[in-house]
Amino acid sequence: MLIEKLQEKLHTQIPLTKLMDIKIKDYNDVNLITTAPLEININDKGTAFGGSLSTMTIISSWSLCWLITNELGYENTNIVVIKNENSYKRPVTKDLECFTLKPTKEEIVLLKKKLDSKGSASIKIKSYIKEEKEVCVEFEGYYVIKLI
């Protein structure tokens, strides 16, 4: 299954994801949900470390790009974040849970057209880290995908 393949890829090819214990919780038509334990992503204040929060959103968004390109039939791609911004709204005091929103069908169709015609394309991805239904971190990133 694609989720297991992605989880293995993350932990073997991006070792930080294994150290942070990032896991894929769910993937559906709306979003990708990833988790990581607070215990190993904690700072000196007893809340989630900002670097872990940033890494979580960047990796989760990268993972969604990987899932989308694989679903479109592209198995060999380079996916790179080229620009991103995190806004920290409130501290995270429990295990990290990141919700990465799937782009619209129209955005995915446009991505495929560009990949087919140019061999590369960019896409905007949004993620949120929530705790008890409240947004703690907002993320917006731009990713370039190149066929190899």
From TrEMBL:
Gene3D superfamilies: Hotdog Thioesterase. It holds the Pfam family YiiD_C. This is Putative thioesterase (YiiD_Cterm domain).
